[in-house]
Amino acid sequence: MDITAIKAGISYGADIPGSEKAPDALEQKGLFSTIASLGHKIEIVSVNQAELPEEQRYKDSQRVKWAGEILDVTNRVYEAVADAYENGRVPFIIGGDQSAALGSLKATCNRYSDVAVVWIGAHANLNSYQTSPSANYHGMVLATMIGQSDSRFEDKLQRFLNPRNLILVGTRSVDEDEQKILLDQKVNEIPCRKVIGCGATGRGTSAVESIMSIIRRRKAKRIHLSIDVGVMDPAFAPAVNVPAEGGVSPEDLYGLVRCLASTGMLCCVDLLEYNPLRDEDGLTAASIESVMYGLWG
Description:
It is a single chain. This protein has 297 residues and is α/β, with parallel strands linked by helices. The chain has one domain: Ureohydrolase domain (Arginase, Chain A), CATH 3.40.800. Helices cover 33% and strands 18% of the residues. It contains 9 helices and 8 strands. An 8-stranded parallel sheet has the order 2-1-3-8-7-4-5-6, with helices on both faces. Strand 4 (115-120), helix 5 (141-145) and strand 5 (166-171) form a beta-alpha-beta unit. It is globular and about 45 Å long. The protein starts with a strand and ends with a helix.
């Protein structure tokens, strides 16, 4: 497989230093060599945020921190993903916080109408700028994609994501306003308790069966897979921006992504929210590497 690895060095969406360093840290730990060893050809593109003074946090918006720089970075991610598609390559976005997925999702939705988005993570990321308790954009990405948030972030977006083509997997930390959107927009949700115990094969489990049933029902032909490393329990992956107790094991996540990869439907993959500044013992990076074998093996 020909893969374009897009190193999206951004942390402004979380407003927590560290995840902007994740792409370089994972490259140094051998992520790309691991993928190449599995028989894939990789080209690498880097997209990095500018270093801005703290006083610019609310320069472009009083409700979304670092709004201007986030839009700039995600537009450059968008261009890199769109270019990969044009050249018949599979985009693999390595973040960086989840704001990076805004760029990749826009490119995917603009190009394909028959795509299901499988969003694996602890959080729903469905807050709007009006409901977000933190004003951190990484929690608003999906709200933008289904037309429920600040319109300035819709730049370059030609086609919204149909909420019924969105599948949240592994959620366990959902705000009240997000829950309302889930119900009102009929977003699919497979909570974390259904993923725990999935195991290394993943086959025959209710989580995998539920995902594939939704994909068949929606007549989707492609899968955009977005992985928040924080879907794993802090016992296995403590080095994330917003950890949440009660997550899955690396083995469970391996089995889940292995099943999705085996369908041959993956058109784009995001790997987000790793924070190497919190990974003193390298445990989280090791968990990520084990999952990569399921994804690209």
